[in-house]
Amino acid sequence: MEIVDATVIVSSPGRNFVTLKITTDEGVTGLGDATLNGRELSVVSYLRDHVVPLLIGLDPHRIEDTWQSLYRGAYWRRGPVTMAAIAAVDVALWDIKAKVAGLPLYQLFGGASRDRVRTYGHANGRDIPELLDSVRARLAEGYRSVRVQTGVPGLETVYGVHAGTAIAPATADGVRVDARALPVVEDWDTGRYMRHLPRVLEAVRAEFGPDLPLLHDAHHRLTPQQAARLGREIERYDLFWLEDCTPAEDQSGLRLVRQHTTTPLAIGEVFNTVFDYQTLIDERLIDYVRSAVTHFGGVSPLRKLFDYAATRQIKSAIHGPEDISPVGMAAAIHLDLAIHNFGIQEYSGYTPLTHEVFRHAFTFDDGHLHPGEAPGIGVELDEELAAAHPYSPAYLPVNRLADGTVHDW
Ligand code: GCO
Ligand code: MG
């Protein structure tokens, strides 16, 4: 079998998604997600200009060899653009291999290690009462674990709450209403946030009791010293995890956090390779690894990462926000079902139009996902509908402190 065609499809059925479609001489097709929120077109160019020409004529079954040649052959390694492009190729080839085998992808990974995949959803509120309503809404949708984010008194806009909903707002025809040609500026004050968060968790525990698994995302905003203090202060609220407490590319900083708190830590959605995790895993500085299939070079390296993490009893928690397309999500769910050290899967849902553009075999029921039994990853792209909703520029916000200094967002 030979790869005869590879095309890159950009579509915005609510938000921008980049999809690679690989076709073989036998007419088998595979899909891969290459979406990099806010930098989508750079991955499109990387694929179209530099990767697609290398794929034509290759044997699609040689996934590992293709992966290694794209990673090592570029000479310039790692980074989100490169690794998103390689991820799309990797997943598309696994999709083809599993279709040819006539099996859902998880069967090629050793089969199911569990019956279904536990998820968590997003609850957001501008203030505590709005957050409590949002938690109720997620529970009504079936979620059994909830991430809680609120506005902070004195700040205008905070990560996770400016949209007020779990899903980016979209008009009926699928055009993002928050799409903008330039990033918006949000404000940030670490002191206010650190004083407010314990009150938020107190209110949520008072309302929903001790049993509901609660998560919180600090979104890379604290220093190790601040994270150590916050983690210790919120121990009594028994978080499932505190996510991205620091910009963790400074891996040794997590030693300080770990020395001071037993609050479980989850890190890694912006990481691209196993090397970003080396100290964190070797020294057991985290409890969950958070990389997305889409930003980590695909399911091939992510499976290796999970095996490495398992040697330290660290579990998986694949990044699954609404800016990972249903193609990337489907690949994640197959992996979640198969690996032993599965922890939890993030799933924040999609706009109705996104579900139409990407028709998928995976299902969400009772707070759990299942990849379905369709051969491959189980996603089909409606290319006509995708083309009717073209790319529209959209950027993540930028954070500034009161004096104008840029801060991590
Ligand atoms: C999460 C993430 C996302 C990111 C987003 C950036 O935990 O789901 O923090 O919400 O902010 O993926 O594009
Ligand atoms: Mg996060």
TrEMBL record:
SUPFAM superfamilies: Enolase C-terminal domain-like (SSF51604), Enolase N-terminal domain-like (SSF54826). Keywords: Lyase. Its EC number is 4.2.1.8. GO terms for biological process: amino acid catabolic process; carbohydrate catabolic process. It is an enzyme of class 4 (lyase). The keyword Lyase applies. SMART domains: MR_MLE. It comes from the Bacteria. Residues 128-264 form the Mandelate racemase/muconate lactonizing enzyme C-terminal domain. One of its GO terms (molecular function) is mannonate dehydratase activity. InterPro entries: D-mannonate_dehydratase-like (IPR034589), DgoD-like (IPR034593), Enolase-like_C_sf (IPR036849), Enolase-like_N (IPR029017), Enolase_C-like (IPR029065), Mandel_Rmase/mucon_lact_enz_CS (IPR018110), Mandelate_racemase_C (IPR013342), Mandelate_racemase_N_dom (IPR013341). This is Mannonate dehydratase. It comes from Catenuloplanes indicus.
